Every structure is written in structure tokens, then in C-alpha cells.
Amino acid sequence: MKLKMDRSVVSWALYDWANSAFATTVMAGFFPVFFKSYWDNQASAATSTFHLGVSNSVASLVTMLLAPVLGAIADSGGMRRRFLGFFAFTGVLSTLGLLLVAEGNWMLAALLYGFGTIGFSGANTFYDSLLVEVADEKRVDWVSAFGFSMGYLGGGLLFGFNVWMVSSPQTFGFAGQLEAVRFSFLTVGIWWAVFSLPVLLWVNERPGTGAGGVRKGLLQLRNTLGDLRRLRVVILFLIGYWLYIDGVDTIVRMAVDYGLSIGFQQEDLLLALLITQLVGFPSALVFGRFALKWGPRNGIFCCIAVYVGITIWAVFISSVVEFYLIAMVVGLVQGGVQALSRSFYSRLIPKNKSAEFFGFYNMLGKFAAVIGPLLMGLVGVLTGSPRLSILSIIILFLAGAYFLSKVDEVEGRRQAAELEAL
Predict the structure, then answer these.
(1) Residue 402 — very low, low, confident or very high, per pLDDT cuts 50/70/90?
(2) How many C-beta atoms lie closer than 10 Å to residue 65's C-beta?
(3) What does the pLDDT look like over 222-233, one tens digit per residue?
(4) How many other CB atoms are found less than 10 A from the CB of residue 314?
(5) In Å, how far are 168, 189, 354 from 128, measured between CA atoms?
(6) Where are the domains positioned within the chain?
(7) How far apart are CA 410 and CA 332, in angstroms?
(8) CA-to-CA distance for 273 and 331, rounded, in angstroms?
(9) Residue (of 353, 351, 347, 342) closest to 71 by Cα position
């Protein structure tokens, strides 16, 4: 099958390239470390972890509550690009604002980080919903995978550059690592802003279902909640997705903590994160091709099976080289499971309500990594072993695969088409 690479597809995918800089350099890379060592350096390790956790939780909760409502408003008024731009540039300005935060001012740093996270997550709801505008059903798996691959490449390249800056600040004319880390936040803000422009300029969206507005959007959301109760296939998918993506997110979020707990150094963990990003670029494209031949659900099953193997392997690792190898294998499947989940879901929902339904999808994504860390913590406390704690994540992968196996794609498409025609 010949895959057409037009301007709208490239413009759409470039937003993943844009916002992944925030996910890698800020969220996963430098902010947590810099927050502890600079902005919240007067607090104990436990207290600073609590401060950062509260900022993350509040931002996730706000996004979780807003996403379906804003999706309904955007669908009713044809305003998905506008909302994407609003949230994206909220994130950009918040990231740039970190440059001005003085040492010890943890509250302002946490507030800006929270707004940055809301901007990042909120924009993703509308970015995901525009997938149905740039790709038909024949191309949707590949286009979704292309977007994630661009994200891994763009985020990985900028993160690698920033790691180089912080590791060798004198090479770039900085007085020390402090100045280099601050400059990395500037690079993320500029990168995110510049590469967000194509999706705002060159991706079209279908007209809304009527005049926009909060009241109409809320009424539409109420109707969609009623529709969702009739879409058994969508509900089954969302339950399965929530379970297995909880396992995926738990591995991502707990990897650094797990690595530190078994004796690895911070530098080793940053390198492992970079490896995952760079491997994720080609592997996401490979899974896009896989889905063209064998279907997205089979691709997701394949990814889940690999994650089960990774989880078992992690129990027994004893060297940093093995940790790097695991990071590489995670990179092989992380982009695949994310891309194919998004494209598979897009097949099951009404196209004229895509922002709303992706609001629910992203709401569950924000609510992910709740059960997993709790399971790990409970097993860790009961056994006293961090190695055994990570084994508990397998439950989430197996349960997610079970619900996914019950999803009837043909029936889901039929139900979505009926709702779209109403």
C-alpha cells in the first residue's frame, strides 16, 4: 500500500515533535532533579517529593476534569485547533517562566510546572482528535505511528542536546550546570512554540455541529455520555486501555526510582531515557506498518506481551548494561502501543465527536499510573524487595489484554457510524 505524505499529515505530526521536548527535557529529565536541588533545596527529600507530587496530581486532575468538557465545546464550535493553540502556548509560556524563578521559590516553580503540564496534556486532547481530519481509515494506523515517531525523534534530539549542555557546560560558554539547566528550559519553550505553528496553520478541521459556547458544549457532553453508555465496544476498549496503559505509564514513571533503589546512578538513568527516545523513533513506524498488515489490535497484543517479558526481566537485572538493554526494548514497544491504541480507538468513535471522545481517552490516560505505583508500593512493603514489587505490574497487562480481546472492531465501527448519522 502506497502511503501519501501530504502537508497536513506532516504538519499534524510536527506537533508531536514540538511538545515531546517538554515531556523529555522538563517532565522526565531536568525539572524533578532541579526542583529538589535548587528550588526546593531547603526541604527534606520526602517533603520536596511531596511538593512535586502535589503539583503533578493537581495538574492531572484539572486536565482530567476539563478534557471531556472542552472537547464537547470544541466539537460544537469547530474550535479544536484554537483550543490546541491556547493550551500549547500556555505550556510554552509556563516553561519559559521557569527561567525567572529564583532559588528557593519552590511554590512558583511548582505552579509554573503545573500550568505547563496542563498545557501539555490539554493540547494533546485536541491534537489527538485532529487525527481523524488528516487520515482516513486506511492510513490512520500509520499516520498515528508517524506522529509518535516524530515525537520520539524530536524529543530525543533536543533532550540529547540538553544533556550534552548540562554535562559539559563550558563547551557552550556557560558558567556551570545551573546556567545550562536554565537555558535548557528556554530551548524547550522556543522549540515547542516554533514547531506548533504548522498544525495551527495547515491542518483543517470539519465545521462544528453548531454555534459554539459553553452551554451548548455541556449539553453535547451530556448527550455524549448517554451515547457512551450505548457504545459497549468503546467502553470495553477504554477499560482495557486504562489497565494496560497504567502498566506502561507505571514502568515509565517508576523506572528512575526503581533504578536508584537497586543502586544505579542518576547519569545512567538519563542515558537510559535517551536510549528509549531514540529507539522509539523507528520502532513506532515499524508498528505502523505492522498494523497495516495484521491490524492494530494484534500490534497492541504484541506490545503487551513484550511488556510482560520486560517486567519479568527487570526483576533479575544486576548491571547497568542490562538496564540500558531494557530501556532499548521499552523503546521498541512504547511508541507502538501508544500509536496503535490511539488509531484503534479512532476507528470506534463518531468522527464528528472526536474531540469529546478523545477527551475521555486522554482523561483515562491522565488517570493512568494510579493502580501500578500502588501495587508496587504495597508489594514492596509486604516483601521488602523492590525487585518483587515491579512484578505486580504484570496483573495490569494481563487484565488489559483480556478486555481488549473482547473488543469487536466491526461492531464498534457500525455503532459509531450510526451515531454519526444521527
Answers:
(1) very high
(2) 12
(3) 766 676 777 889
(4) 22
(5) 37, 21, 9
(6) 7-421
(7) 29
(8) 9
(9) 353
Domain 7-421 has CATH 1.10.760.10: no
Q: Which cell goes with 107?
A: 511554590
Cell of 270: 538519563
Instruction: Supply the DSSP symbol for 265.
Output: -
In order, the DSSP letters of 178-195 are HHHHHHHHHHHHHHHHHH
3-state secondary structure 330-341: HHHHHHHHHHHH
Torsion of CA 240, 244, 245, 250, to 10 degrees: 150
User: Tens digits of per-residue pLDDT, 26-50?
Assistant: 987 788 778 878 888 887 765 776 7
Please name the residue that has the C-alpha cell 482523561: 363
- Kind and range of the H or E run holding 28: none
Asked if 317 contacts 261 with a C-beta cutoff of 8 angstroms, the reply is no
* Structure-block grid coordinates of residue 178: 545551573
Cβ 19 vs Cβ 151: under 8 Å: yes
Characterize 137-154 residue by residue with b for buried, 16 or more Cβ atoms within 10 angstroms of its Cβ, and e for exposed.
eebbbbbbbbbbbbbbbb
Q: How far apart are CA 329 and CA 121, in angstroms?
A: 26
End-to-end alpha carbon distance in the chain: 33
Give the contacts of 311 (CB within 8 A, at least 6 positions apart).
247, 251, 390, 391, 393, 394, 397
34 neighbors 182 (Cβ within 8 angstroms): no
Asked if residue 83 lies in contact with residue 17, where contact means CB atoms within 8 angstroms, the answer is no
Q: How far apart are CA 82 and CA 88, in angstroms?
A: 10
Cell triple for 4: 501519501
Residue 210 DSSP one-character state: S
* Dist CA 382 CA 72 (whole Å): 44
d(C-alpha 401, C-alpha 276), whole Å: 23
Work out the burial of residue 405: count CB atoms within 10 Å of its CB; fewer than 13 is exposed, 13-18 middle, 19 or more buried: exposed
Q: Say if residue 352's pLDDT is above 80.
A: no
**CB contact burial 234-273 (16+ within 10 A = b; e otherwise):** bebbbbbbbbbbbbbbbbbbbbbebbeeeebeeebbbbbb
Q: At what angle do helices 320-348 and 232-261 cross, to 10 degrees?
A: 170
What average pLDDT does the segment 170-185 reach? 92
